[in-house]
Structures are given as C-alpha cells and as structure tokens.
Amino acid sequence: MTDxxxxxxxxxxxxxxxxxxxxxxxxxxxxxxxxxxxxxxxxQVFDTGWISTDNVKLKVTEVADSEDGRVVHYLEAxxxxxxxxxxxxxxxDASRRRDHMQQHSGQHVLSAAFVRLFNMxxxxxxMGDDYCSIDLDIKDLDTPTLSKEQVEQAERLANEIxxxxxxxxxxxxxxxxxxxLGLRKVPVTERDELRIIDIRDxxxxxxxGTHIAQTGQIGCxxxxxxxxVRQGWRVExxxxxxxxxxxxxxxxxxxxAASLFSSHIYDVPQQVRKSLDExxxxxxxxxxxxxxxxxxxxxxxxxxxxxxxxxKLVVRTFAxxxxxxxxxLAQKLTRLAPNVVALxxxxxxxxxxxxxxxxxxxxxxxxxxxxxxxxxxGRGGGSKDMAQxxxxxxDGIEAALSNVAATLRAQ
Length: 411
Ligand SMILES: [Zn+2]
Description:
Blueprint: E1 3-4, E2 14-21, E3 29-32, E4 34-35, E5 49-52, E6 57-65, E7 71-75, E8 87-92, H1 94-118, E9 122-127, E10 132-136, H2 148-163, E11 168-174, H3 175-181, E12 193-199, E13 203-206, E14 221-229, E15 232-239, H4 240-261, H5 268-303, E16 312-318, H6 323-336, E17 340-346, E18 352-357, H7 365-376, E19 379-382, E20 386-390, H8 397-410
Parallel strand pairs: 1-4, 16-17
Antiparallel strand pairs: 2-3, 2-8, 3-7, 5-6, 5-8, 6-7, 9-10, 10-15, 11-12, 12-13, 14-15, 17-18, 18-20, 19-20
The structure holds zinc ion.
Zinc ion is lined by residues 42, 104, 108, 205, 207, 209.
C-alpha cells in the first residue's frame, strides 16, 4: 500500500519518496513508497506534476489507483537509471490541485445545502475540465422537480457557508464510530477506518479527496445548468477561480452580443426577441412577394408562349433563382392553364431543374427528369406531373432543356 500523504495534508505540494516498483504498462509508470499525488477516485480527477532525480525531471501526466491499493504515476517518458530504491522528488502542479480542492470542497458544501433545504441527496459527483456536476436524487419527494428558485436558494446558502469561513477538518474514525456520527454520505467500502471530511456544524462525509482547510478558500460557488437525468436532476456548478473565469467569459460574450445591438447587456434578450420578430415578419413578407412575383411571371410567360398541338410548352433557364422559386413558378404555370408543360432550370446558386405539367397532361415528368439526370450526372426524380433534380455544375443545363423540349414536341 502506498502511503498517501494527501490524506493528512492537502497543501503538501513537494515531497521526497523512494521508488518501489516500475510496473509493466503501455506507458512508463512508477510506484513510490509514499506520494502526495492524488489518483482519480470519488469523482475527483488526478493531479499532475513532476517527478525528478538529480539528473532528470519528468512530467506526471496521469495518476491512478491500482487494484492492490497502490498509486501508479504515469510519466511522459521513461525514467532512465531508475530502479527500486532510487530516491526521487515529487512536485504537484499546485494550481491544478488548488482548483480541484475548490471544486471538491465546494461540492460538499453544495450537496449539504440541497439536503438541508430540500432533502435532496447527492448520488453522484463529476469533475470535468470545464465544469462539475452533482446528480440529485428526487424520487422520494412529493414534488419531484427542481425549480429555478430552489437552485438560487441552494447557491445563496452554499455561498453563506463559504463566507462564514468554517474550519474543515479531516478525521479518521472506525466504522462503528462513523455510524454514530450521522454521515451525509456513507461509503460502500469494507474498510475498517474511514476518512471523514468535517465542515464544522455543516457537513460530515466519508471522502478520500483533497480539501481546503477553511470554507473561505473555496472562494465562491456558481450554479449553472440544471437538467433532468435518469436518476434525478443534474446540477452543473463551478467554484473559486473557475467561477470567476466563467463569469468573466459570460460577461465578454454578453458584451460582444450587446455591442452588436448597441445596447446594454441586460437588454440583449429583449433585443434578440425584437430581431427575431422582425426576421419572422420579413420572411412572411418575402414569401408573399415571391408568390406575387411568381404569379405575375407565370402569367407573362404563358402570354408570350404560343400554343402548339393543343399545348403550351414553356422552356426557361434562370441565372439566379433557387429551387423553391422554380417549384413555385412551375406550380403557378401549370395551374394558370390546363395545357401547360414547364421545363425550368437555374444555373446558380445551386444548378437545378424542375419539370411540371398541368394535371391530366399525357407526358411523364418523373421519367423525363430521370433521363435528363443520367445525362447530366445529377440526382432527381418525381411524379408524373412534377419532378425536380440537382446537378453538380451548370454546364449543359440549357442543352438538356432543349433536348427534353425536342422530345416533347416530337411526341
Ligand atoms: Zn468528497
């Protein structure tokens, strides 16, 4: 078993140790007789830092528990000349450790707040690179939900406990003693001795994590997104410098948004709502205008097209219409008169074709489109009266329309 120095002192960032073993592993790995490096467990992620001898200093990239209770340090490169018995110096990345302490102690304070205020126990804790989260069990509650007001209340109470700067003590007790203490969280392990994190008159939890010494060192706690998950409600939070950094990023983002509207940051939602309303009404106006344009254009095209063999064959290639407009125009053309066949195309923005005929006409637009697509290397098809297709480039579109028109005239 490795002697875990962090159990007794979370602020120990430098230590000396002796190499115990160099375990077989895909990555270079090292086991020491004692360590201040925290291995991933209990929701808290591992420390990083450095291990050095007189000659070399190597980065510790990950730390993990082995199955037999030892701590394995993974290194960026193999330590040469290293064997069991070699003396090494370990150094923890202090800013990463401090951040983890703020998040983890923040979690204890917050979890206790949810229990005391709303009887919502924490069933899991996750610490990520960006944010942390706890899952609250709400299945035993009369109203199994978590409101915005409850979130704000828990946040306020947690921050009060932080401001009161309560001492946080680490104690080791037997299972029997622990049973009498009334722990918020009792671990599942079989171990006889339990490590208790005692936030004075606020929270008692069995936990192996690294914690601050006084709640004031958490700094502050900020609750973020909440979402319904299978086992209850997930509450995202951040503490300490992370909370400040996130608030800073939020402010920068909001300021950027506000400057786009030339408004105050608190007016951004109102400005966005106003803009969305404008976009919606303009979209409606545009659709209306396109309908009117298509109707007028269809009427003009039909007037300019002579009837031949009892049919009006309209052939037209546009340079700047989209597929939707072609379809709209085809609809208008084929509904304005009972004997219309329309062969329409556009060369940009997306080279596309639309073939359509008035209901009851004899040709097959779907078949003609399939045939045209196979010649142009595009994809498309449709029904007997309406078909559409898209092609990779505009070359040959006009010739293809002429071909189809010639086929129709010959029928
Ligand atoms: Zn904990």
